[in-house]
Amino acid sequence: MDKAVVVSTVANGITLITLNRPEAANALSIQMLSELREAIAACKFDSSVRCVLITGAGEKIFCAGADLKERAGMDLSQVRKTVSLIRESINELEALPQPVIAVLNGVALGGGMELALACDIRIASETAKFGLTETSLGIIPGAGGTQRLPRLVGKGRAKELIFTARRVDAREAQEIGLIEYVTPADSLLDKALSIANQIVLNAPIAIAQAKFSIDKGMNVDLSTGLSIEQNAYELTIPTKDRLEGIQAFKEKRPPVFIGK
Ligand code: COA
Q: How far apart are CA 4 and CA 219, in angstroms?
């Protein structure tokens, strides 16, 4: 059986995670979630990984969310367990110390869109479409959608999208701040790689601390956020990479950061 999640190194320090069930719209089956969590854990503890890209196999679909066929045969307790598994997997992806770029090769619906919302940066092909379709299925977004979408696009727009279950195309998604870039399908990976390649040149501890500071600081009052930033900054002060940054500037050469 093919692996439901394929992990590959696409460039120095850049790992690509591919959701690989194209025959089932890359839907989040229990097997896929288990492999996804393994892939996330492997990245978390591998200091050679400096940026993670996540995409879907095929040209049409990033991820159609929960596996609705699998769901159909579940009792209530199995449903609760599976939703919890999706939630935890997405939270773990968001909590990775490395930046995660969603490379949205196509449709992202329900849990697929929630997965994209938990990434740090979203780039989509012109053919991509997005929707939190849960209310049309008698449920609500249960893996962060009601929380992460309003934080990205504002409360009113998030409510409109969740209440109507409407699907938006890539252009509209960019206009409302749901995604950062739209590219033609054939240059999607190049665009993602060009951003990732810039990220991996910078100091890994600094990037992890900047990510932590932004993520934790966005959800608290400004004064607490500024304290979080101060503590995060503090962790960069004793690093070799900070000294390397200063030295390289003095010597007018690019810095070589080692993540220490
Ligand atoms: N779970 C399991 N299987 C799914 C799926 C899902 N979430 N979404 C699609 N599939 C399956 C389809 O049943 C079909 O399988 P089949 O060939 O055995 O019938 C296959 O994936 C391809 O889907 P299909 O609908 O034929 O392709 P499409 O290109 O016309 O449309 C989607 C793709 C994703 C837009 C459409 O399938 C869709 O809207 N799916 C529902 C997604 C959704 O609402 N998810 C939210 C879950 S909370």
A: 34
Residues 235 and 112 in one domain: no
Q: How far is the CA of 129 from the centre of ligand 1 (A)?
A: 13
66 is catalytic: yes
User: What CATH number is attached to the domain comprising 217?
Assistant: 1.10.12.10
**35 catalytic, yes or no?**
no
**Which pLDDT band, with edges at 50, 70 and 90, does 2 fall under?**
confident
**25 CA → ligand 1 middle, Å:** 5
3-class secondary structure, 126: coil
- Concerning whether 134 is annotated as a catalytic residue, the answer is yes
Partners of residue 16 on adjacent β-strands: 8, 53
Q: Which domain, by its residues, includes 76?
A: 5-199
pLDDT of 180: 98
Ligand 1 pocket residue status of 86, Cβ below 6 Å = no
Closest CA to 132 of 145, 116, 122: 145
Total domains in the chain come to 2
Say yes or no: CB of residue 26 within 6 Å of ligand 1.
no
Q: What is the pTM of this model?
A: 0.97
Assess whether 81 and 34 both reside in one domain: yes
pLDDT at residue 1 tops 90: no
CATH of the domain at 143: 3.90.226.10
Four-residue CA torsion sign, 154, 160, 163, 166: negative
30-79 pLDDT, tens per residue?
A: 999 999 999 999 999 999 999 999 999 999 999 999 999 999 999 999 99
Our answer to whether residue 102 is catalytic in this structure is no
